[in-house]
Amino acid sequence: MAVVCALALAFALLLPLSQQQGGPGGASGAGRGLAHGSQVRAEECENPEDQSLSPSGGDGKSPVLDAIKDREDRRLIVGVDTNSYRWGYLDPNNPSGELEGFDIDLVHRIAEDILGDRDAVQFKAIPTSRRIEAIQKGEVDMVVRTMTINCDRIGQVAFSAPYFVTGQQVLAPKTSTITGFDKSLAGREVCSAEGSTAYDNLEAGRKNGDLPASTDISTTVPNQLDCLVKLQLGDVDAVVTDGALAASQAAQDPTVELKGSLFTDEYYGVAMKLGSDDLVRQVNRTLENYVKDGGWEASYEKWLHPTMDQGDKKSASATPPEAEYK
């Protein structure tokens, strides 16, 4: 087991923490009700995933899009993850040295629709804890990084319509007696990423009694993959993260597995700066076309089918969520 963990750890450490740097110059509704839980702070607003702008409408002005197109290098600057297997990562066995994954495919499609060139992108590695800050400070045009749309965040950044649905889940060693997001976490140390909905749900779970008060949730890390490393080293007993990411991590390390079922609904969206209405509408137009022309499905089959589907049984995440606009 030590050898397997060492190999998995080595693979994780091969994945870069950063790529190019620099700031900006100048379907079906099958995904609804995926899990029985509700999103943290859901009482503050209703259906935050349905609060984005319609692709059509607006005043016809496009100041944000025009500024992107007028850049000297004509590139879209996007914050991504560079170490999440099958979402946004560098495969050390890929000689091209290019980022790849489900989120990366989406970025290329957005760039193609805006600039006419799928490769007109500057990727910036953004840790989980800095996603909102990077957008607000103008370091990136958008973040495409398994980012959940929730009530707290829609007051800080503008989101596209959802492009993926999953939920929170527990990851632990196969030999562990942990059974899920339940009393089996009593006295256990659980890791989550800073600024993540995973931590929010752990905190809420202790307050509302879904988790024992003895559950230790104090271990947080900048990037969710760091939790897998801590789990491999025995520093923590379990990890809570999005089920889609947990499935990819389990594929990286055969000594860990998903425990229990999804216990929340999580809708991923493309995050942009508040007030970037023309950019939001354009991204939503891209998402609609991406689903209609089969691009979304092809990307899912390539990257996520191997880790999320069980034989002929499709995951609930295999269907893109239906877009509803405010």
Tell me what the structure shows.
The chain is an alpha/beta fold. Helices cover 31% and strands 16% of the residues. The chain is built from 10 helices and 14 strands. The strands form 4 sheets. A 5-stranded mixed β-sheet has the order 4-1-5-14-6. A 5-stranded mixed β-sheet has the order 10-9-11-8-12, with helices on both faces. It has a two-stranded antiparallel sheet with strand order 2-3. The longest helix has 16 residues. The radius of gyration is 19 Å and the shape is globular. The N terminus is likely disordered.
* Tally of helical segments: 10
The stretches of 5 or more residues where confidence is low (pLDDT under 50) are 1-23, 25-43
- Classify the secondary structure makeup into a structural class: alpha/beta
Write down how many β-strands occur, each being a DSSP E stretch of 2 or more residues. Answer: 14
Strand order of the largest sheet: 4-1-5-14-6
Radius of gyration equals 19 Å
Q: Please state the average pLDDT score.
A: 88
Which percent bin holds the helix content?
A: 25-40%
Task: List descriptors.
alpha/beta, five-stranded mixed beta sheet, about 325 residues
Summarize the structure.
By secondary structure, the protein is α/β, with parallel strands linked by helices. The protein has ten helices and 14 strands.
Helices and strands in order, then pairings?
Blueprint: H1 2-14, H2 63-69, E1 76-80, E2 83-84, E3 88-89, H3 102-115, E4 121-125, H4 131-136, E5 142-143, E6 158-159, E7 164-166, E8 168-173, E9 189-193, H5 197-208, E10 216-221, H6 225-233, E11 238-242, H7 243-252, E12 256-259, E13 266-268, E14 271-272, H8 277-292, H9 295-303, H10 305-308
Parallel strand pairs: 1-4, 1-5, 9-10, 9-11
Antiparallel strand pairs: 2-3, 5-14, 6-14, 7-13, 8-11, 8-12
Helix pairs in contact: 1-6, 3-8
